[in-house]
Amino acid sequence: MGILRRQNKDITIIIIHCSASDKPEHDSIDVIRQWHLDRGFDDVGYHFFIKKNGDVERGRKLFQIGAHCKGFNSESVGICLAGNHDFSDCQFKSAAKLIDGLKEILPNLKSNCIFPHFLFDINKTCPNFLISEITKYSKLVF
């Protein structure tokens, strides 16, 4: 099965994840991509990955439906921060800048559009930090 497509107007929420690993060698979307391919995914499930140093790496294109949150992939953007319990301010700042940019190009993002993954799956604790760690750096009101 190929990667399903959507229009930008279909995207209404952003779901924040963590990689669940603090190992330095896991600080790359290529590692996450391989984990997902090994699980039978067509590609990495996330749209963006934020490295420990704050660099943003692209995963799936926005018009491609993600594979990061069962039942909510068609309407969401998946952003994953490298780490499990150890995150950097530069990651939070990069996430805020990315989300500010997404809000400018995605017309139907809700005003309170950012959610932690665990709200959609009771078996998850991800992203293991408060969303306010990101939104406090945003130039937009949430």
Describe the model.
This protein has 142 residues and is of the alpha/beta class. The protein has one domain: Lysozyme-like. A five-stranded mixed beta sheet has the order 3-2-4-1-5, covered by helices on one side. Strand 2 and strand 3 form a beta hairpin. The N and C termini lie far apart (36 Å). The mean pLDDT is 93.
Question: Would you spell out the secondary-structure blueprint of this structure?
Answer:
Elements: E1 13-18, H1 29-38, E2 48-50, E3 56-58, E4 76-81, H2 89-105, E5 114-116, H3 132-135
Parallel strand pairs: 1-4, 1-5, 2-4
Antiparallel strand pairs: 2-3
Write a brief caption for the model.
The chain is α/β, with parallel strands linked by helices and 142 residues long.
Number of strands: 5
Structural class: alpha/beta
Order of helices and strands: EHEEEHEH
Main pleated sheet: 5 strands, mixed
Envelope shape: globular
- Fraction in helix: 10-25%
Please give the count of helices: 3
List low-confidence stretches: none
Tell me the domain tally.
Answer: 1
Q: What's the pLDDT, averaged over the residues?
A: 93
Write the CATH architecture name: 3-Layer(aba) Sandwich
Oligomer: single chain
Question: What radius of gyration results from the CA coordinates?
Answer: 14 Å
CATH superfamily: Peptidoglycan recognition protein-like
- Here the CATH topology equals Lysozyme-like
Order of adjacent strands in the largest pleated sheet:
3-2-4-1-5
Strand content bin: 5-15%
CATH C-level class is Alpha Beta
